[in-house]
Amino acid sequence: MSSPYSKELLVAQLAVQRASLLTRRVFLDSAKGTVSKSDASPVTIGDFGAQALIIAALRHNFPSDEIVAEEEGSKLREDAALADRIWELVKSTKLDDEKAETEVLGGAVKNKEHMIDLIDSGNSKGGRAGRIWAIDPIDGTKGFLRGGQYAVCLALMVDGDVKVGVLGCPNLPVDDAAPLSADAGAGSDEGRGVIFSAVLGQGATSRPLTSAGLAGGKSIAMKPVTELSAASFCESVEAGHSNQGDAAKIAEKLGITRPSVRMDSQAKYGSIARGAGDIYLRLPTSKTYQEKIWDHAAGDLIVREAGGQVTDVLGRRLDFGHGRTLAENKGVIAAPKAVHGQVLKVVQEVPGV
Ligand SMILES: Nc1ncnc2c1ncn2[C@@H]1O[C@H](COP(=O)(O)O)[C@@H](OP(=O)(O)O)[C@H]1O
Ligand SMILES: [Mg+2]
Ligand SMILES: [Mg+2]
Ligand SMILES: [Mg+2]
């Protein structure tokens, strides 16, 4: 008998792989078709294209599942030139493995109109009932534009609980043991590109991102941290996304002297899950911002399955059942189980956190 969620895992991995290949093409192109969203954040043809390809694969395999995805298609109905550029990418990005491409992923998207409909169909409200996929087609869009790290993110929640999580990180080193660095090595794909995955209760793995089918996977585990003073934080590059000043105070109180590694996207979760980094800290910068479920669902499961503990700054598990946002959580602390409590205690000693 196959293990629980084996089909979901296979589809998710191949869908993320294909979408990551699309984003890679855009990453190397100087014209990324960037437009500004209503909240002033950027979105590119890479984000739209990756979302279309992932939703196409999910609809082909699991037509009655709900989908919560970050992007929406309305801009593309007003801007035909933008829609055309995305369509060029979507129709020409395929896995080399014919069987994976057609039998598992369902092959090409029918036409441009259908592509926009697919992008628009990730509008579920989310919630605590049933099967819901969460998609962030490019997490770390600002990093993607800067030549930094980014991630293609997909997770399946069942009744509010994350069961399957997959992260495609095209700019991370393939080698799990490579030292953690913020440098994405833009311009060369040599030795780069990794897919992290996890299924609840079945552990976490990493495998190289290739243009064919799935390459062999290895199981991953967090680095055991015995002395916190020897550890370092992995934090967001964007000061507006995480309070870096408070993080520095917390590091000092913990005796941490190494500087934080600043990295965009859920590549942070993948990096600590494979033991390349130690602790992911994301401290709220405002009282009102609600974290989005697609920014954390896959990473939360991958870190927990690699032996870590993930909570918010109040010590609560991330609760993905509240809708499109983590409405009942503030910030994130992801750390090896053995030291998570120590970090949480010091985080709570800092006024205002
Ligand atoms: N004020 C804020 N506080 C925390 N996160 C924010 C934020 N504004 C935007 N973000 C989220 O931060 C994500 C990037 O995470 P990181 O800072 O770890 O790279 C963005 O994802 P997208 O790039 O998918 O839009 C966005 O959803
Ligand atoms: Mg995101
Ligand atoms: Mg995004
Ligand atoms: Mg965004």
Blueprint of the fold:
Blueprint lengths: L5 H22 L7 E2 L5 E2 L1 H17 L4 E4 L4 H5 L1 H13 L5 H7 L7 H9 L10 E9 L1 H6 L4 E8 L2 E13 L18 E8 L4 E5 L9 E2 L13 E3 L8 H11 L6 E2 L4 H7 L5 E4 L14 H9 L2 E4 L20 E5 H13 L4
Parallel strand pairs: 3-4, 10-11, 10-12
Antiparallel strand pairs: 1-2, 4-5, 5-6, 6-7, 7-8, 8-9, 12-14, 13-14
Helix pairs in contact: 1-2, 2-4, 2-6, 8-11, 9-10
State which percent range the strand residues make up: 15-25%
What small ligands are held by the chains?
adenosine-3'-5'-diphosphate, magnesium ion
Class derived from helix and strand content: alpha+beta
What is the percent of helical residues? 25-40%
**Arithmetic mean of pLDDT:** 96
What number of structural domains do the residues give? 2
Low-confidence stretches: none
Quote the distance from N terminus to C terminus: 48 Å
Q: How big is the Rg?
A: 19 Å
**Number of alpha- plus pi-helical segments:** 11
Write down the secondary-structure element order.
HEEHEHHHHEHEEEEEEHEHEHEEH
Strand order of the largest sheet: 3-4-5-6-7-8-9
Note the main sheet: 7 strands, mixed
Question: Tell me, what's the shape?
Answer: globular
Strands, total number? 14
CATH class of the largest domain: Alpha Beta
How is this structure best summarized?
The protein contains eleven helices and 14 strands. By secondary structure, it is an alpha+beta fold.
